[in-house]
Specification:
Blueprint lengths: L8 H22 L9 E3 L5 E3 H17 L4 E4 L3 E3 L5 E9 L1 H5 L6 E8 L2 E9 L4 E6 L3 E4 L2 E3 L11 E4 L7 H12 L3 E4 L4 H7 L5 E4 L4 H4 L2 H7 L3 E4 L13 E4 L2 H12 L1
Parallel strand pairs: 3-5, 11-12, 11-13
Antiparallel strand pairs: 1-2, 3-4, 5-6, 6-7, 7-8, 8-9, 9-10, 13-15, 14-15
């Protein structure tokens, strides 16, 4: 998984300082509204959205555009601009809006930096839990400043596997997931983006999902990969701006290969 034109140490430090700063700003906007009355509307795809989602993304976009006017942007609520730029930021202001509006703490803010179309820096921030993963591809992943690492699980039969909900799969995809997950040691549902943090920290071994958008996985991929894991689409291809919505994240190459083979069976 070669990353073209990786960030230099100075670039990593500069971009991480900026990204953690805006993540702090996002948390300051979202957390005070959690478990408080909030108006919910439905978007065209019938997914819920709140003023918190839109307010956080507006703030993040404004901060990025001010600091890096030549960089591209991709966000859940307000779309994309300049995605052919060398550097592109991907933001999901509230990943897990259904969790947010139901008082469930497993929602997060996702911020990614891509270089030449590939994610190189990812932040997975969980405001209600006060947990934050930062992943630099080729360097490492930290949880609240301390290094973390995926598990050593290599066998599907030994793996604990997560997905957010069966509702994200088509019937054919569900059949593939059901077959694969029943071959695992355990399967669990729920978690939204939090499952990937648990994977990066070695507590679970795999996540399989579908019907995702780029802003759902671009920040997560560096977190998982820099912790030693593997994250691709269902065909085993590296994730980028143009990937489809089906992802597999696994602790080891051996487990990843077993999952890919099972999904194709």
């Amino acid at each position: 998984m070669t990353v073209h034109a990786p960030l230099s140490a100075a670039e990593r430090a500069e971009f991480e300082a900026f990204a953690t700063g805006i993540a702090n700003n996002a948390r300051a906007l979202s957390l005070p509204r959690f478990r408080r009355p909030v108006d919910v509307t439905l978007k065209g795809d019938m997914s819920p959205v709140t003023a918190v989602d839109r307010g956080v993304e507006s703030m993040l976009r404004e901060r990025i555009e001010l600091a890096w006017p030549a960089h591209g942007l991709l966000g859940e609520e307000y779309g994309a601009s300049r995605v052919d730029a060398e550097f592109v930021w991907s933001i999901d202001p509230i990943d897990g809006t259904r969790s947010f509006i139901s008082g469930w703490p497993l929602w997060g803010t996702l911020i990614a930096l891509l270089r030449q179309g590939q994610p190189v820096l990812g932040i997975l921030d969980m405001p209600a839990l006060d947990e934050r993963w930062i992943g630099h591809v080729g360097v490492g992943t930290t949880l609240n400043g301390l290094p973390c690492r995926v598990s050593a699980c290599r066998s599907l039969a030994d793996a604990t596997m997560y997905t957010t909900t069966p509702d994200m799969f088509t019937p054919d995809e569900w059949a593939a997931f059901d077959r694969t997950s029943r071959a695992a040691y355990a399967r669990r549902f729920g978690g939204d983006c939090y499952s990937y943090g648990m994977l990066a920290s070695g507590h679970i071994d795999a996540v399989i999902e579908s019907n995702l958008m780029p802003y759902d996985y671009l920040a997560i991929a560096p977190v998982v990969e820099a912790a030693g894991g593997v994250m691709t689409d269902w065909e085993g291809r590296r994730l980028g701006l143009d990937s489809g919505g089906r992802v597999v994240a696994a602790a080891t190459p051996e487990l990843h290969a077993a999952i890919i083979a099972s999904l194709k069976d």
